[in-house]
Amino acid sequence: MYILKLGSRFSSQKSYDYLYGINPVMSALYANKRQFTQLYVNQTQQNDYINPRISNILNRAQSLKLDVQMIPKNKLERYCSNDHHQNVILKCSKLNYCNQLSDESNFVLLDSVQDPQNFGAILRVCFFLGINTVIVEKKGQCPLSPTVSKTSAGALELMNIFETDNLATFVKQRKHEFQVIGSGFESNSVQN
């Protein structure tokens, strides 16, 4: 993202994201929750050997009529401040929070998770456990960023992330609708 590192607090000021890595890009293309501008692929992927997963990404991009540019690795690294791009980067709109909760039986509430790698790891575990909705508070929460998507192994793209003004109020208003199980840092803080 220009000169800024992905996952930087300032990256949220841009109107688009550069998703990087096979799983985040593949998940984004299949979830279709974003608007896609361009797919960048390392030009070595068009020669004799092509990673089958990148081939799947290229096929999906073609079905979406997405512009694909085969570029050298050093140009890929201009869009991604690290070498974890796995030869593929997707320029796309920012991911929006979902604006309605469905009748999910299970979801997770997160309070003030500020580190994008922790947020992504939590989303990855939630997705693995079959939880596809996570509720966060607007204030103090890490933004939905390419770093979160990468760390979540693409789970962010497939999940519903709902944002509320105040988690405590949210829980109080809805506690009659579902069972609330909470935990915290103190040994006696687990409550049912």
TrEMBL record:
Ranges where the RNA 2-O ribose methyltransferase substrate binding domain occurs: 18-98
One cellular component (GO) term of this entry: mitochondrion
Cross-referenced InterPro entries: MRM1, SpoU_MeTrfase, SpoU_subst-bd
Cell compartment(s), UniProt: Mitochondrion
Keywords, sorted A to Z: Methyltransferase, Mitochondrion, Transferase, Transit peptide
Main location as per UniProt: mitochondrion
Molecular function in Gene Ontology: RNA binding; rRNA (guanine) methyltransferase activity
Protein name: rRNA methyltransferase 1, mitochondrial
Organism of origin: Paramecium primaurelia
Lineage of source species: Eukaryota, Sar, Alveolata, Ciliophora, Intramacronucleata
